[in-house]
Write a structure and sequence with these properties.
Layout: E1 5-8, H1 14-28, H2 40-50, E2 55-61, E3 64-74, E4 77-87, H3 96-110, E5 115-119, H4 125-134, E6 139-141, E7 146-150
Parallel strand pairs: 4-5
Antiparallel strand pairs: 1-2, 2-3, 3-4, 5-7, 6-7
Length: 151
């Protein structure tokens, strides 16, 4: 098995991103942090909507997308962005999420954001575990349910 690759997503990745999002939605429901099971068309629309103020990143294992991260502007705080990371259950614990988070963090810094934050939904144990590990770079606030990374 080859090492996974990480890169900024293109519209050609929409089917794979939607498949990962749907699997995570089926596993965690509203606790996934997703508004619902995504469709490829919805992924493309969201990427177009974000334009150059947001980014989507993928992790591909054997040419199949196994995770993605999204960075989007915080509409209430123009210097802040929000990061989310989603992985297929079988690929968690391998460091893929961390690499996706680093890709999103690097992108947000280059895009001029001053901080990166997000909310971990109640009951999302994989996210709590992941961000607990990622916390060496993050300041955990609000009873462990929010994270913020100064950029």
């Amino acid at each position: 098995m080859a090492d996974p690759t990480y890169r900024q997503a293109t519209e050609d990745d929409a089917v794979g991103i939607a498949a990962v999002g749907t699997a995570v939605w089926e596993e965690l429901g509203s606790g996934s942090g997703l508004p619902g099971a995504p469709t490829a068309e919805g992924v493309v629309a969201r990427m177009k909507e974000l334009g150059d103020r947001g980014g989507v990143f993928v992790c591909a294992e054997d040419e199949s997308i196994c995770g993605f991260a999204g960075v989007q502007p915080d509409v209430n705080h123009p210097t802040e962005a929000v990061l989310g990371v989603w992985l297929l259950a079988e690929t968690r614990g391998k460091g893929y999420g961390r690499e996706l988070a680093v890709a999103g963090t690097d992108w947000a810094r280059e895009a001029g954001y001053k901080s990166l934050r997000g909310t971990i939904p109640d009951g999302n144990e994989p996210a709590l575990s992941f961000f607990g590990d990622f916390a060496s770079m993050a300041q955990i606030v609000g009873q462990g349910m929010e994270y913020e990374l100064p950029l």
